[in-house]
Protein 1
Amino acid sequence: MSHPYAQPLADLFPHLVPEIVLVLCACMIFVSGLFQTDRRLHHAAALASLFFALIRALPPVEPPTSDAAFAIPLLFDSLANLTRVLAIATGIVFILLSWNDMADRHAADHDACFLIIVAGLCLAGASNDLVTLFLALEMISIPTYVLLYLPRHDDASQEASIKYFLLSIFSSGLLLFGFSYLFGLTGTTNIAGILQVFYNAEDAKPVAGLAQVAMLTVAAGLGFRITAVPFHFYAPDVFQGTSTSGAAFLSYVPKIAGFVALLRVFGFVVPAAVNMPSDHALVGMAVSDQVPTLFWFLAALTMVIGNILALLQDNLKRLLAYSSIAHAGYMLVALTSAPYLSGADASTSGVASLLFYLIAYGTMTFGIFAVIALLDRPERPVETVDDLAGLAKSHPGIALMATALLLSLIGFPLTVGFTGKFFVFFGAISVQGPLGWLYPTLAVVGVLSAAAGAWYYLRIITVMYLRTAVKPIETRGAAPALLALIVCVILTFALSVPPGANWIMSAARETSERQPPLKAPAPERGLVQ
Amino acid sequence: MFDATFLMWLIPLLPLLASVTIAAVGRRWFPDKCHIPCIAGAVGACMAAILVFVAVAAGDEAPIVTGQNTPWISAGHVTANFSLRADGLSAVMLVMVTFIGSLIAIYSAGYMHGDPGYPRFFAAVSLFLFFMVGLVLANNFVLLYACWEGVGLCSYLLIGFWFAKPSAAAAARKAFLVTRLGDIGLFIGILILWAHSPGHSLEYDDVFRDPRHFHFGGMLFWACLCLFIGAAGKSAQFPLHVWLPDAMEGPSPVSALIHAATMVTAGVYLVARCMPLFGAEPAAQLIVACVGGFTALLAALIAVTQTDLKRVLAYSTLSQLGYMFLALGSGIGEHKLAGLAVTAAIFHLFTHAFFKALLFLGAGSVMHSMGNVIDMREFGGLRKVLPITHWTFLCGALALAGFPLLSGFWSKDEILTTTFEAWQQSAGPVGGLYGLLFFSALFTAGLTAFYTGRAYFKTFWGPEKLPPEAGHHPHDAPPLMAWPLRILAVGALGVGIVLGPFHLFAHFLDATWIKRAFGLLAEEHHANMPLMAASSVIAVVGIGLAYWMYVKQPEVAEQMSRRLATLFELSHAKFYFDELYELAIVKPMTILAHVCRIIDAYLLDGLVDLLGQAPALMGFLVRPVQNGLVQYYALLMTLGLAGFVLSILLR
């Protein structure tokens, strides 16, 4: 007689075809890299496997509603689908963007590591178990170390990868520490199971303090990946030290993993099998009202520090690192207000606006890094803002596209950056209730810091258009990187207005449809009095 | 038969398409054929408008409405749809706008020939047509306001078409600023309506359903007053009338299209559209009537002494618009007269569009052949030189003067009848005021006949005199300009006699709009025979007087101007309104602006600079934390986490 959960477990494997294909292809590239050093070959193989995975990943999978959810390690619900499609699409753009950004002899290792990262990202999105989640996150982290170390061997690059390595391990340690507490408190590593225990634990007050510590530690561990202040310190140094594609990678891929993991562990996305009292607060964020308040500070700090420190930067990648921190802050605003917004209304669902902003940020940041990857050459580096001087004269098309992307980063109307900020801040303003004033205040902080931040983006535009270069940029740039740039620019506009924006928003909304509304921040509710 | 709603979308879209085409590729691909898309768009819109008109006339009394479910703006309690509406009122306006617009587009192809800004001109004219039909088709105040601003913008672009000429640039700025002043009123009026309408709706049907919604705190009066300020700005009524005469700096077809036939009537349209509100507020109506009547008289008095042919026509436009507002303002007393009033006003608007466009195009033709000279002292006796222009101008002039049986006669008579009825039906001082307005209107009618005759005789009669700029052989209008003149002349002669005597126009409006809008039948239309006779006599006497003074005894005019020197000077200087405004508004504003500039440059800039430095300063203070030491980063991360944990546990 077989185990009752044997069948659901066996059923998982057909869903895993994209990940399996990606990992198999990665293995093949590792091996073929020993004989073949032509980067185009490896890039083509990687792209082929990514496209295959994308086609396999596109049809949505129905998540199991039965009790199997309490046993299986992976849950393919709409969040998993969205993450997977996003991860693979990001992968395709990234391969294009990094086409020429490495030596031929490193191309195979680079591509293979990256495919494993994409597979890990897909798995992280589907994780329904703390162990699976941790393994998936490590499946992202460990190849990242290789990826950062590969392209350059100068001191700065080595320092950057060592810094990232040490601090990443430290954050993984924090994460694991938090996970162990969660396991200790609930007796299971299954996320659905953990959520169920929390929902049932009306009278489990003694452990609440511990639960909060666990949550915070998890948040800190994931905060490293999303570059939330004060876990952001590595970002500027590492961005500056590594290659352009490495910086592009760091600005975005760990953020997807971090935010999806936060959504999963903190119970923003509740599996259908979990029996949820209709009037109950959310797990995690609502263990007590203090956790949301701390997230409030996390979001405010991240936005303000990111934008203010970016004002002082002359190095482009360092500037983009702080910009990346600031944008993580906007996404944290969406996360902070998410428990108090019903999932029914498109314009106000916090989870949906978080995912929308995540996608929006990807198009903008990859686009800007594509500009740098296109223009940066050893003989004429593009390191500082001033290196872009005169771009409008030498490369008017690229300058125009870069301007569009920078305007989107500022949040200019008709760009996806505006639409995303609109959803995020509008959502925060819509929170009502006794402590509701906190959230509009957060939106005001966000808007003010974004306004201050507009300055450093505008400065880049000014330099491109109004300054003349001492030594004009002459490179024509690689066609694949140009393609990546064009795709990003098109998406920046296409996703900003109804057909595109609605399409993304409805996909993002599906992920949190199970989310119960919490009418107002309720101070006395939860495990701690 | 055909889908009227589809055609209603087509009417604005065709001119828009034409405008976009000309603006996008016209300058590069066919710089000297840019009139073709414009004419095609206008004529296509005109066909569609006629079909919509037929559909409205054939349909039951309900308006044809489309696009209620196409949300445009939705923010909080404000919702605006892209909804269009065709009822009797908008159908008449649509046909008038697109028909006159088509003729003027054709005329412009000849008139603007060879101008370096040819593509720009037609792009702007098409854009104007788009906004104008949008204004008429709008089914809510938000769309109306958007198009209202749009026509203002196009007017600005076209008045300043020859922007290298300082007077044109100044006139464009003046027109824009003065009408903006009115627009503020309109905006406030719309806000009041929004605040008090049921369900905060700005759709016409919801707003007009029951004016009692607005009685709260006398709000109806203020709403009407603000709407009327907007209307007065756009229709150049006293005291916002100063921009229209200056607007003649634009090309003549623009004067005909925008500043005589269409845009300036938008104010009349607005008040007519809002008549369910105005009709319920006698105080507002009295203001409308007084402003209208006063403007009519004032502008006619100024027109008598102007020497610039186009300016005479501009003041005449002011005066005729004043007539229309006088008619609208006479619609008092529980809707009984309201139907009569709007019929008279819209009828006059309709006929006026024909003869005034004709007169402006005729003046343009004179200007064209006289080498851009338009001062009547510089030329004379042109009836032999410009036969086509002469005959068509004569038709327009007679219609404007109210010569019996021509179109102006019928519509002006309806206005006089309405004002007369308002005088008869109201009692006390209000009745007396309407009586005064009635006699003032009669007097104005005489003045109108006189200054029209004066302009006509001075231009076409007397000894032949040509300015040096005209060259040796001034030529009459080329066919492209002549045919629109002929068609409009037929309209100026015939529209009144077709629609007037049997009240066809009135019956159409009754059936398709008034009955539904006011909930009851308008008062029976009847011809007031003594009044008709009186106005006929006045018109003929006015023209005769002009003939006597400017053809028979030209020295009399000289003697008159010397004998009535003060009055003459006053009229000639347009009653010093420009100087008054300069002194009372422009000067203080300039001084204020200078003061503000000083404050801004020295005080605010300093403050802003200081504020701008604050984030950088903060960044400077925080920067040492980012010292590059990895163990330090790990320590800070731990401290941050510890801070969070402690703040939770110690609370």
Protein 2
Amino acid sequence: MTEALLTVRGLTKHFPVRDGFRASGAVRAVDGVDFDVRPGETLGLVGESGCGKTTTGRMLVRLLEPTAGSIEFAGRDITHARRRELRPLRQDLQIIFQDPYASLNPRHTVGRIVAMPLQVNRITPPGGIKKRVQELLELVGLNPEHYNRYPHEFSGGQRQRIGIARALALRPKLIVADEPVSALDVSIQAQVINLLRELQRDLDLAFVFIAHDLAVIRHFCHRVAVMYLGKIVEIGDRDDIYERPQHPYTRALLSAVPDVTQTDSSGRIRLVGDVPTPLNPPSGCRFRTRCWKAQERCATDEPALVPRDGGVQAVACHFPGPDGQDSDGGTR
Amino acid sequence: MGRSESVPSGEPDRPEVPEQRSGEDPYLQVRDLRVRFDTEDGLVRAVDGVSFSVERGRTLGIVGESGSGKSVTSLAILGLHNAKRATISGEISVGGRQLVGLPEEEVRRLRGRDMAMIFQDPLSALHPYYTVGRQIAEAYRVHHPKAGKREARNRAVDMLGRVGIPQPGKRYEQYPHEFSGGMRQRAMIAMALVNDPDLVIADEPTTALDVTVQAQILDLLADLQAEFHSAIILITHDLGVVSQVADDVLVMYGGRAVERGSVAQVLRRPQHPYTWGLLSSVPSLHGDADADLVPIKGNPPSLINLPSGCAFHPRCRYAGRNGDRSRTVVPELRSAGEAGHLVACHLPADERTRLYQQDIAQVGVAR
């Protein structure tokens, strides 16, 4: 197995909540998350709102300061690296944002937006910055002659391509993509997914791909981590997660997706209630309040993320697998 | 119209109407609806000659991308367009009453009572300053001027309970910010249904929600429809939601209807190249995950400067197949073979079937 490009251990982010001037608790947005990303690999982080997937992504590129845990990128600990130390690493580690309207400066031309990472890092590519920017625009399927246009002259899908070109400017090794297609229309979404897949293959990029849409994740990722209330509940290869989900939450999530090919929804697992508040998550297993398999033990022991049958798929559940064989359970 | 005074329990006086299309007139009939906005940049033809109908107890899904005119259509039905800005022509008949040209005051009386809307974003549709219960009670009292405060309150609490909000009496006193996203959407639905409307328009009702909560809300809408026997229009961009909830589908593109029919007809035996494009560009949980998606090339059209002829022709793979017709003649919606299935496309029917079998049926979710 190749060495990991990104190693995340026990990553935690708590946002303090103040009641007047007194700290009165913390939103436990991310609460001890472990995963690795190998070079050229795409890892999907999927979950519902409030599960901590975006917070995790922002910590990876150090837009947020982790409360605890460690992030190791290309062999270096970047958990608390300072700005100056981070600068050379930022070249290898880029982010694509969800909203193609808010993430581009409306007063800058496309050329300037895409050139910015080069200028900030004082890099002059062979042939000059303009030539490189035009190559990048072409790479993401935009007309290089649109160099002097402003973001408002482009549609949502095209703007997202500009954001992608900017992320690629420094030839990164890893891109964190936070819901890169969820603001786009269906027909445009497919264009952008295909573009990202193509770039991933051609440039051998690693991705941490954050999305709430399970079908989008399935079409893009090699491996998938399912998050719930700040924890990873299940992680594994794409086919294992989609064909043989073990955690009750993964199963419920997959069965809740309305699929065009299905008209019958009778076999669906129906979860009751909403996700509890991360301010005061349930004791033991955080999913137990909505889980149909929950037993006494789930309220007291927090299940660890353990590999199933020595494989690569790991599940944090006392009673994983299909219904009806609950009794064997996990051993710890 | 045989409106019963809203009886909370059971609706015993409503006759059992069979599932199939019966002899009764559809509750909502829209004919040749056109909505135009005069802007500085030019005339926007947001809706350009759309016709459809919805019977009681049935759900019509309106599908399209941004700018297709789906939301403008629903706002026109509810009479929510500013008369100074929008020019509306055509016919909209709700329960036999003609709405286009009706004085604002009369439309207002129908709105909320005979027809109601569920919006996408419940946080901006609910007033943050008033308790949820008070807003629902007020919606009831507007249309039941004789109802006292207590009666309106009881009705609101009852509705909150009926949409699955636990402890409705306590929740009545709370403000929108104290509700979670799913609970807020339930409260919105309670408000829309408080006057027992015969027509409910839900504009992307679950788009802002998580999938597990979306499943709950879709179930709730289906249950409430079975109970109240209302006609529902569900506006969405999500073909999966339509497939699961709707009986009929209307596909819109550039302000026009391009295909119409039952869910089975439009989603399983689609006839319009745009519908094909939508189906093959949606990522699915089934099928080959490694295969590339098949997107529709280009971007949705500008409504100010709509392409000539068939508005879809610049993005259509098959546009050149019948000479210049796609570029010059606007295709009319006509029968696609099966009863009730209509399509607006110049391709001859047999060629469409052949192309579908050959190019589309094998790939993606259109399988």
